[in-house]
Amino acid sequence: MPVLAATIVGMTDTSSTGLADPRSRKAFTTIRMLTGGYLALSVLTLMVVALLRDDTTMVNSAVWVRGTIVTVSAAFTYAFAVRAARGSRGAYRRLRVIAAVMVTAIVVIIALPGMFPVWMKLEQAACGLLLLGVVATAYGRHLRSVFATA
After folding, report:
1. Which range of residues forms the domain containing residue 103?
2. Quick one: which of 12, 35, 107, 132 could link to 81 by a disulfide (CB 3.0–4.6 Å)?
3. Rounded distance, CA 135 to CA 121, Å?
């Protein structure tokens, strides 16, 4: 019956020993710290954007849009990390996908000339480094084996 209840709420049986393994706990602690840092930096950036809204050299419409998208994605990424640490295979897949997609988007943002001010590109680089850590940990052999389908 516990397996059925876990399945109903979107959790899958990922072998509780796999999640209880010290390597799993360490990996998810790392992922939660990195995604928490990504969320905090994104929220802080959006606050700075709001404060600098009247300075058109520092904030343009692209900065507003990107700052908002990044903050929303950071909130989802953190939520997926928390749910994956509790055993949700779906959240684990979403975490991996969103982290990889955002790293790719960040590389594009940094490479685009003129669209974003330098300070935003630096902030995005910091976000990208945090997410690279998430990607490396989430795609690691140990967590992939914990969430492998039976």
Report:
1. 22-143
2. 35
3. 20
